[in-house]
Amino acid sequence: MLKFTRRQALGAAALSPLATISPAALAATPKDTLVIANQITDIITCDPGECYEIASQILMSRVYDRLVRYEAEDMSKLVGGVAQSWTVSPDAKTYTFKLRPGLKFQSGAPVTAEDMAFSLQRVVLMNKTPAFLFTQLGWTKDNARTLITAPDAGTLVFTITEDFAPSLVLNLMSTLAASVVEKKAALAHEKDGDLGNGWLKSNSAASGAFRMVSWKAGESLTLEANPTYRLGAPKMKRVIVRNVAEPATQRLLLEKGDVDMAMSLQPDQITPLMSNKAVRVESFPYSGTWYIGLNCSDERLKNPKVRLAMKYLVDYQGMANTFLKGRFNVQQTFLPIGLMGAIPYNPYKLDPAKAKALLAEAGYPDGFEIRFDVPNTSPFAEIGQSVQQTMGQGGIKVDIVSAELKQVLGGYRTRKHQMVIMSWTPDYLDPHSNADTFAHNDDNSDSPKTRPLAWRNHWFEPAVTAKTKAASREVDTAKRIAMYEDLQRIVTDTGPFIILFQPNAVVASRANVHGYKPGIIEDNYFYRTITKA
Amino acid sequence: MSAATTATPAARGRVRRFAGPVRRVAGVVFSVLLTFLGLTCVTFVIGRVMPIDPVLAIVGDKASAETYAQVRAEIGLDLPIPVQYWRYLMKVLHGEFGTSVITSHPVLDDLLHVFPATLELSVLALIIGVVVGVPLGVFAATHRDRWQDQVIRFVSLLGYSMPVFWLGLVGLLLFYAKLGWVEGPGRLDVSYDDIVPTITGLITVDSLIAGEVEVFWNAFWHLVLPASLLGYLSLAYVARMTRSFMLAQLNQEYVLATLAKGLSPWRVVWVHALGNVWVQLVTVIALTFGSLLEGAVLTETVFAWPGLGLYMKNSLFNADLNAVLGGTILVGVVYIGLNMLSDLVYPLVDPRARDRW
Amino acid sequence: MSARPSIAPAPDTLRAWLLEPAPASRGQARLGRWFRGWLAFRRNPLALVGLAIVVALVLMALFAPLLASADAAVHQVLEDRLQPSSWAHLFGTDELGRDIYARVVFGSRVTLTIVTLVSLIVVPVGLLIGLPAGYFAGWIDTVLMRLTDIFLAFPRLVLALAFAAALGPGIENAVIAISLTAWPPYARLARAETLTRRQAEFIQAAEMQGASHLRIIATQIVPLCLSSVIIRLTLDMAGIILTAAGLGFLGLGAQPPAAEWGAMVSTGRNVLLDQWWVATIPGLAIFVTSLGFNLLGDGLRDVAGGRG
User: Relative to the CA of B24, which of A122, A138, B217, C199 has its CA 20 to 30 Å away?
Assistant: First the structure.
């Protein structure tokens, strides 16, 4: 086991009793080690075929390599990961990938097409959360083994049965679910036909830039540089991600030098850090969407005029300029800036007079009372209370029900809410990921196959759904972009969502840490480029 | 109300109904079994009616309906609650507590991992409470109704009245952030993680075993603030109880008699009288320990202390049923054990307790 | 001690009447007992401080709208967030620019509501279980006390937390969760008190006269239990307040925008280092209130006697 202490820095003096009397010793993390403070309690599994939580996506994307991907050097361009090149059949149904030769797993075994095919199949066969990414292509438990094949060690071929634009299919193959898992290792630990899922929950069989050394649930996850990584070993020998729940504590640890980077700071921690020379605060665009869902099964919210009025009863700029400063920007369409086709279309601002007029037209001159489900964490709670106050200016009395995030989500998924505030992040770097949820609802019954956000809010507009479908199939990229621009305006103007903000990822690092440039989704939070001076 | 009644809120002579010691022990065992059953039953039902969907906690928000149904069946939620409870009980009797959703480890492993952290904190707090609290209590008793007694009483009442989470925050603000006298939240600095092999799970002990003096001091400075604050809260209780017990002793004839024989008052108080109340004190200490475990949920939240309290809080809010149940059973068993200890020991030393009811 | 209370019209006579060693009526005896208790209580300065705090709290809750503007307690002024103490905002402002002083004042209502509701549930439930157990003894006693034992064996805070989590956040649910864990000591107490009075002559006499059990319990035993129950309750109040605040701190208390002290401490945690007052002041309010009840209860217990 690699072992380090502060001893090197402190020298023999540290061992003298005097030095130990006061704990205020100088703190610094070792030169070849990067210590990151983040909230990682949401990691419940490390199996790339199962994980779907933000922290596990960030970290497992560092551990596993995948079929195709975006790289740190140019995050706008899809390039091969395990694959070197690929071709798509003219009917856009059959995809053939040539794998890079000479790739090795961290165990030393070669990466073969057999492993890749197995990895894709197991996502469908295990049917865990990420499975929907692939099953929408038409893959099922019964056909996965025949539709995904490895004719030789260097070639992977798969066939899809649904109509999809190739750019979209390739983006699906750039998700964490398309990671390559070492088949032999997974099957060696298989239990009751789980395809190694039980073992891979806390172990890895990967070929990515870092090797997972340990995961202590709720405490820390430790990575070590993989010397045989195809793009060269990462600069930092060791990366320790430590769970620090409180943003205020993250800040303290950073200022004391106990950690090199803090990932979950709130505006109230960021502002005081700005004046600290030992620390650098950087802000990167992130692809999230924060919105309020309005359930159209409610008689009042069904009325488009009421929904429109409510969109004028939120102090977007006021929040973004004060308690959300630096962390959130106003973005009122369902595509965050940075995703293909996103437009800066922000027609709403706080306007109680206009809202009142609209409410009067809709037949509610005196407003009404409504329940608002709000997760009890910051900044949901603060945004919720601000909205409560501004809605009041239009005569709408909002009763906040604040609860654990998971509890709120549970009610939302079963459409028991009236008003709810929630955030969304795309599953892959394609506008379809968001369009498919904000603007797609083809089955408004109580037990549909999927539960897109439009369904959750009882927004059943077949014409909009048809537009979403068409956009997902459009082969001409320019046309496709135009279609998404159109869709965004429709949803922002008429949809059951008060779309509020796009967050930034704010990262504070010690001044000697360089080279961290995260992309707009978690998959692209590259650690391998980070250096320490 | 006599002092003894308040001394052991849980040791209320439930044993009176049984004549001999054998029947008494049998009665206590029966009562423990019943309590245990009630404990698991209530916790189980709470877990099942919780508004947080445990399936959602596993599959996340984006899973398809099919995945959702599959996982729901996997964890047995499609069965009626009594059947689920019966199955769970059978498993527990075989020593199986299931797997935690959040950590994907067996719950028992998790508990063995987090419990020492709580133990380390509570034991040190208890030591502080006893070492300071007992002498204070004795002192208060010997200065009954004088200003010293009033001061000690007031100091204990202050302790009784502190919201522990607030005290922790203020303590951190003052002693860690402003003055820098102690280390902050957590058990160790990040750079000291993983150095010392786990033997007892108590980092201070393990680091000494491994000879890592530096790690020991780091752990110590992390421990000292929460332990002192908790120690103060337990001190309040211990001091008050000691005072009551001592007053009862000092009023007895033998004290006057020994004093008359010319023994030094100091010796009479600290050796004879205190010697006679130690068993009662043990029960008080046991109960204090119980309340420390209870309060762990709040303290560990404030100090980011990776112990049982934090574990239970996180599992509760994530609808991690197996973990919640396992944790509650552990706390419950310790708690029942402490109560049982009071019940069994108390009447032995205090004849009045036997006929009070 | 300072000046005697000047009770009009004839203090000395009234005083003498109250302190009459051989009271003429049961009413006089009872009033006399209360008066003697008050005289003893008055000699305890700490208890008087406690009483003052509790009275102040009740007054603060009753007259909250006079002490602070109700609007200021909930009205957000985002531009004024996290302001330090000033004449406009005595205790500064919180993360949404609300006046902390007003929130602390109105928060006393939440706290008092919880404490009152819990008492209103816990005492009757405790009596309902403890009185029959002590009065009838036998198997009724065994069953009821077994039930009480089970609840007593639970770690209280953990159980309250679990109940609150199961019921969902909100004041009513917090009250239910706390009550579910707080009643057993009252059952025990009521049973013990009943047992000691059960054989008293006047109860035997009432029974001989053919009074129904219900009547005896209601008219003879309940009043006798009440004083010890009230003392116990006062001592418990602090615990109830702390538990409620703890639940609020963990996000299981009152719903926003209501000002609940525990929740205020919790949200203030984020800015503890730079704006210490946001978390500290509501915490201080919890502490002082609970101290008040503790001092008062402690004084009452001393007066009730038996305690050294």
Answer: C199
**Strands A369-375, A289-294: parallel, antiparallel or unpaired by DSSP?**
unpaired
pLDDT tens per residue across span A195-247? 999 999 999 999 999 999 999 888 889 999 999 999 999 999 999 998 888 88
B102 contact residues in A (CB cutoff 8 A):
41, 44, 217-218
With an 8 Å Cβ cutoff, is A399 touching chain C?
yes
Name the nearest CA neighbour of B354 among B1, B6, B14, B10: B14
Q: Domains along chain C? A: 42-303 (1.10.3720.10)
- pLDDT for C305: 60
Q: Cβ of A217 and B101 within 8 Å? A: no
Q: How far is B10 from chain A (nearest CA, A)?
A: 34
Same domain, A256 and A334: no
Q: Minimal Cα distance from C71: which residue of A?
A: A389
| Neighbour subunits, B (≥3 Cβ pairs < 8 A) | A, C
What values do phi and psi take at A428, rounded to 5?
-155, 165
Q: Between chains, do A30 and B318 touch, taking CB under 8 Å as contact?
A: no
Matching residue, tokens 């109580």: A446
User: In terms of residue numbers, what domain contains A111?
Assistant: 66-184
Tell me the pTM: 0.84
- For the domain spanning B107-354, the CATH number is 1.10.3720.10
Chain C contact for B328 (CB, 8 A cutoff): yes
Which of B166, B251, B277, B329 is most worth mutating to test chain C (most C CB atoms within 10 A of its CB)?
B166
Question: pLDDT tens digit string along C63-84?
Answer: 999 888 888 888 888 888 888 8
Nearest CA distance, B294 vs chain C (angstrom): 6
Chain C positions touching A252 (Cβ under 8 A) are 273
More confident position, B25 or A420: A420
Within 8 A by CB and 6+ apart from A413, the residues are A451, A456, B53, B56, B61
Chain B residues in contact with A214 (beta carbon < 8 A): 194
**Number of domains chain A contains:** 3
Q: How far is B73 from chain A (nearest CA, A)?
A: 13
Query: What does the pLDDT look like over C30-75, one tens digit per residue?
Result: 788 778 878 888 888 888 999 999 999 999 999 999 888 888 888 8
Give the whole-angstrom CA distance, residue A472 versus residue A136: 12
Name the residue type at position A45: T
Q: In what order do the strands lie in the sheet with A94-99?
A: A83-88, A94-99, A155-159, A148-152
The yes-or-no verdict on residue A3 having pLDDT over 60 is no
| Closest by Cβ to A5, choosing from B67, B70, B214 | B214
Interface of A with B in 245-264 (CB under 8 A): 245-246, 249, 252-253, 256, 258-259
Instruction: Determine, for residues C251 and A404 on separate chains, whether the beta-carbon distance falls below 8 Å.
Output: yes
User: Residue A231's CB: how many other CB atoms inside 10 A?
Assistant: 12
Q: Are A360 and A489 found together in one domain?
A: yes
Is A284 a member of any domain? no
Token pair recorded at residue A141: 């438990």
Strands A279-285 and A68-71: unpaired
User: Could you tell me the CA-to-CA distances from B117 to B120, B182, B296 in Å, in that order?
Assistant: 5, 18, 10
Asked if A222 and A262 sit in the same domain, the reply is yes
Nearest to B331 among C155, C276, C287 (CB): C155
Residues A40 and A87 in one domain: no
Report the pLDDT value the prediction gives residue A439, as an integer from 0 to 100.
Answer: 96
The answer on A422 and A340 residing in a single domain is yes
Is the Cβ pair A389, C270 closer than 8 Å? no
Q: What is the CATH number of the domain that holds A173?
A: 3.90.76.10
Residues 6+ apart with CB under 8 A from A265: A247, A250, A251, A273, A281, A506, A508
- For A41, the closest of B70, B176, B314 (CB atoms) is B314
The first and second tokens of residue A211, run together, are 């090797």
Q: Is the pLDDT of residue B136 over 60?
A: yes
